[in-house]
Amino acid sequence: xxxxxxxxxxxxxxxxxxxxxxxxxxxxxxxxxxxxxxxxxxxxxxxxxxxxxxxxxxxxxxxxxxxxxxxxxxxxxxxxxxxxxxxxxxxxxxxxxxxxxxxxxxxxxxxxxxxxxxxxxxxxxxxxxxxxxxxxxxxxxxxxxxxxxxxxxxxxxxxxxxxxxxxxxxxxxxxxxxxxxxxxxxxxxxxxxxxxxxxxxxxxxxxxxxxxxxxxxxxxxxxxxxxxxxxxxxxxxxxxxxxxxxxxxxxxxxxxxxxxxxxxxxxxxxxxxxxxxxxxxxxxxxxxxxxxxxxxxxxxxxxxxxxxxxxxxxxxxxxxxxxxxxxxxxxxxxxxxxxxxxxxxxxxxxxxxxxxxxxxxxxxxxxxxxxxxxxxxxxxxxxxxxxxxxxxxxxxxxxxxxxxxxxxxxxxxxxxxxxxxxx
Length: 423
Fold this sequence. Notes:
The protein is an alpha/beta fold. Helices cover 61% and strands 9% of the residues. It is built from 16 helices and seven strands. Strand 4, helix 8 and strand 5 form a beta-alpha-beta unit. The chain is flat and about 120 Å long.
């Protein structure tokens, strides 16, 4: 009988995939199972790696342990000299500093240097009481002669008002700073005509002394805290020698160039600042006349092209009429005048600087020259505008006095003529 064969079913796709997965898994398992030979190789590799690591750590340790070098006599002497030099540098005394002019700026610069460890050797001022009071505070000495400041000091810092005051302290016939000044350094901080600085440098050099311009672009708080911004003019070698003291006085400084150059820069700084101050006063004054909220106006100015440093420093004072002096209106007029003189020499017209100077001259005429420059707002806000009454009265009284003198002279001469006729 023929054998019946049952037809085998073809595996489905699913079954085929499963079988393939099983085969692959079996192959992996076979690969993973290490043979004896492979295991031995791996163990040998590990041992070799450990040996290498041990050698490396041993080398590092050997490097860290310094080998003792034999120090020769020569090397030992050099090291000793170096150590003593370092000690001397650390202990080296700071130069003694004298001040001529101890007003708002000078006094606070002296206070700061005293706090930095400098000996404030002598103080001179045209108001002797101011010098005496500060001398008591700083354990210093108030002197009556300019030459005494020079005699007591390595460095003399001058902070005077104008060209005339500067010439007087350096050129006085009976007493001046250049008497016995050989080896003394003079740092002149006032804003002056550039030529004055040049002339004084020449006179100082003739007696063996040296000078620097130390023009300041900051105010009283910065003088007290030693965060002034300084513009320096003079010989580069002198500047480098004085740099430690200048750094103690300032937050930042710029060496501008030869003598006279720093005062040119300072004149321009103050000219622009004064124009900005007068312009802000006019803007706020007009805003007040228009009935605008002035605090809002200041906020808008700060976010637009009307923004300036003066807006930060002077706007609130203009609104509150608080004109405590940090930089006086009289000084603003003087410094604008210096810039205008420089422009005149170069045949330049500066109408804004001219108009600004005129505003500050008006303040001076009204007897407000010693108020802060922010007082220029008193001329632009409605209802403020001070009138120069006091000045007019003085002029009238002066005229009356002149008339009285001339009338007396006439009466005396008439009496004499009558007496001669009688004779």
